[in-house]
Amino acid sequence: SFLVTSQEQLFKQIGEKMAVPLLTKKIIKKRVKRFIRPQSDRRICVKQSWRRPKGIDSRVRRKFKGVTLMPNIGYGSDKKTRHYLPNGFKKFLVHNVKDLELLMMHNRTYCAEIAHNVSTRKRKDIVERAAQLDIVVTNKLARLRSQEDE
Questions:
Q1: Residue 73: per-residue pLDDT
Q2: Facing residues of 113 across strands?
Q3: What is the pLDDT of residues 19-36, one digit of tens each?
């Protein structure tokens, strides 16, 4: 009772050969949790996005025990693995087929991500060209569903 749709057939055609990432080093993030702004849990007007505390009595600025941690240079990721996705590639935003040509020689370092404002028809062209150039596309299955229904 398993139906094979055109989306799955397309995935099989594309998935046959894929570029292998050049990165062999394990990606380790020193900190995954975001730094939240102190008092953001108590006041609605204080948003969660980090702002450095500048008050003269601020416990966070004075680095008291048990208070919110402040971001500093020590939390930075390893230079060799910085900006890499879990799949081992760096992200490159693609708006049209011509943008893929830039990745032709760098298909083992960068993967393509199709921009959100690209139409369904152009997406299909980009995915097909990426398969020819052996470029990994992270969101290749996005917006293919709507075309099948028509």
A1: 95
A2: 93
A3: 899 888 899 999 999 999
* φ/ψ (deg, to 5) at 3: -90, 135
Q: Are 80 and 35 spatial neighbours (Cβ–Cβ below 8 Å)?
A: no
Phi, psi of 116, rounded to the nearest 5 degrees:
-70, -25
Question: Strand, coil or helix: what is 92?
Answer: strand
CB 112 within 8 A of CB 126: yes
Q: Does the structure show a pLDDT above 70 at 14? A: no
CB distance 97 to 129 below 8 Å? yes
Cβ contact 72:63 at 8 Å? no
Closest to 129 measured CA to CA, from 9, 12, 8, 14: 14
Please tell me the distance from the alpha carbon of residue 35 to that of residue 74, in angstroms, as a whole number. 14
Q: Whose structure tokens read 């369904």?
A: 120
Helix axes 120-133, 6-14, angle to 10 degrees: 30
CB count in 10 Å sphere of residue 140: 22
Sequence-distant (≥ 6) Cβ neighbours of residue 134 within 8 angstroms: 17, 18, 19, 107
Q: pTM for this one?
A: 0.75
Q: Please, what sign has the CA dihedral across residues 73, 75, 81, 86?
A: negative
Owner of token pair 């894929």: 18
